[in-house]
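Re: cytidine-5'-triphosphate structure - here you go.
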Amino acid sequence: MLQNRRILLIIGGGIAAYKSLELIRRLQDQGAGVRAILTKAGSEFVTPLSVASLTGDKVYMDLFSLTDESEMGHIRLSREADLVLVAPATADLMASMAHGHARDLATTALLATDKPVMVAPSMNVEMWGHPATQRNVATLARDGIMQVGPAAGDLACGEFGSGRLAEVPEIINAVENFFAAGSTRPLAGRSALVTAGPTHEAIDPVRYIANRSSGKQGYAIAEALAALGAKTTMVSGPTELEDPRGVETIRIESAREMLNACEASLPVDVAVCVAAVADWRVNKDAENKIKKNGGGPPALELLENPDILAGIAAHANDRPQLVIGFAAETDNVIGNAQAKLAKKKCDWIVANDVSPETGIMGGDTTTVHLVTGHGVEDWPESSKSDVAHHLASRIADELNGPAA
Ligand code: CTP
């Protein structure tokens, strides 16, 4: 699976560093070539000699080594790899990465690389759970850094919980999946905008109009596009979901805020409007909480919200090459979707069959039909994650043309 793949392994200074020796062996078993950078702290746990013997190469340790720099500068070291794998990634190493420090060879190579990076964190449970670490984890995810683990279990420090280095087979699996799914990263250099979740339209400071959208499908699509290499921005209404990995997530509440955030994110190559935008908003939302004062319920005057999908599709100069909408339909699924395609002047509609027999909003599986100007594709019932990956690869095919 990893034949001829070049992996730059950065070994941080944690007790789990001993597992990096096994990791080198197993990566080589799969055909990968492994070159290693050992941090100073890492060398307290495994010896440079062990690492060099296993990699069959010298082990790189010192940023200011004259011989190293003349043979293989840190820039070249960071570029001559298909993947940079940090295992174990300590709390300190991850903090340095999140803040862009370049204090030693490992952090300098991580800052200088133009290659995908995967971290396998390993630390004490409290260190892992610390808000500072979690902030760094979120920053790294936003920067597109992939992560495998940590696992939960007994920790070397005698405590129990999350923070164990993922097992070697799991790390190998993550590396293989990365190369299988995204080795060509067909959307590298492309940009994508996704809208997701519901919108909330204020009635007064405490009440709002909303809908039941969970946001799962939009989040899955944003993550799938990012996984194929697209620089992805997601504008999301209120949801309970975590920001998807590798996606710049902008949280908004109302349809008009969503519209503004989308406009600010253009131009992009592809826009996928998955959000269940509230169709109406209250004409004038009250500044203060509306009280029951015996006069009966207030009359709410509703105004139609801007159609974000149609607006993006109508852009004169920076219309995305591909504009995709979603439609949730209970009957005449294809006919309604085709009408929507024509009305909103988008390129594709992903028609979601939400009739009671198939599934409901908020569920994990879905039955969709891809309606384009050229016809209709019926996709089998599948998970929202599978739909997202399928759609992302269809988008890549479309943007790259038939030869890709
Ligand atoms: N959409 C949008 N902005 C709106 C309304 C909808 O961007 N104000 C987008 C949605 O994100 C989705 C598509 O348009 O991509 C759905 O169209 P819509 O006309 O709202 O269809 P339904 O929600 O299915 O509602 P209806 O069938 O009632 O028209």
